[in-house]
Design brief:
This protein is about 50% helix and about 5% strand. The chain is mainly α. The protein has a domain of about 110 residues.
C-alpha cells in the first residue's frame, strides 16, 4: 500500500488504489526524509507498522458476526484514504514523530487534508487582495477617480455640441 501510494511500485492493485496518489510534495518529502534517516531505522518499516496497526483497528471496528473476509476491502480502502490524509497534512519538512502521530490518529477529516499547493495559491490571492485594500485605504487622498470630475462638453464636428470628455478641457494652442 505504501509503495503504491508513494509511487515506488505502481503495479500493485487493491481496492481504492486508483482513488488517490501522493502529490509531488508528499513524494519529495518522503525521499528527503528517507535520505536523512538512511543510517538508522527504515522509514518504510516505521510507516508500514503504523499503517498495519490502523488497518487492524479498522477491521476490528467494522467486524460484526455477519462480516466475512469478502468485506475486507472496505478496511483496505479506508486505511488507504487514512494514509493519504495523514501524509498530506504532515508539514514539510517531515519528521518521523509527526508522521507516526498522524498515522496513529483514529480519523482525519477530509477538510484537514487540503492540498498544500491549493493553500499557497489561495494565500497568494488573499495577500494580493489585502495589499489592494491597504493601499486603497492608505492612499485615499492621494488620487481622485476620473468620474469624480464633472464632465466637460467639447464641440463636436461642425460646431455642434457632442462628445463628453472625462479629462481636462482642451484649449487651443496660441490663445
Amino acid at each position: 500500500m505504501l509503495c503504491r501510494y508513494l509511487g515506488l511500485n505502481t503495479t500493485l492493485i487493491f481496492p481504492g488504489c486508483a482513488d488517490v496518489s501522493a502529490s509531488d510534495e508528499v513524494q519529495a518529502s518522503f525521499h528527503r526524509l528517507h535520505a536523512q534517516r538512511r543510517s538508522s531505522l527504515d522509514l518504510l518499516q516505521v510507516l508500514h507498522s503504523q499503517l498495519l496497526q490502523h488497518l487492524a483497528r479498522t477491521w476490528a471496528r467494522l467486524h460484526t458476526p455477519a462480516t466475512t473476509i469478502m468485506d475486507f476491502h472496505v478496511s483496505l480502502r479506508e486505511t488507504y484514504t487514512h494514509l493519504h490524509r495523514a501524509l498530506s497534512i504532515s508539514p514539510a519538512p517531515w519528521e518521523v514523530t509527526q508522521l507516526v502521530t498522524n498515522l496513529q490518529r483514529e480519523s482525519i477529516e477530509a477538510w484537514e487534508a487540503v492540498d498544500a499547493s491549493a493553500i499557497s495559491v489561495c494565500h497568494g490571492f488573499t495577500m494580493a487582495f489585502l495589499w489592494l485594500v491597504v493601499t486603497r485605504l492608505a492612499c485615499r487622498t492621494c488620487y481622485t477617480r476620473l468620474d469624480d470630475e464633472p464632465p466637460v462638453r467639447q464641440a463636436g464636428p461642425q460646431g455642434r455640441g457632442g462628445a463628453v470628455a472625462w479629462a481636462v478641457p482642451w484649449e487651443p494652442s496660441g490663445a
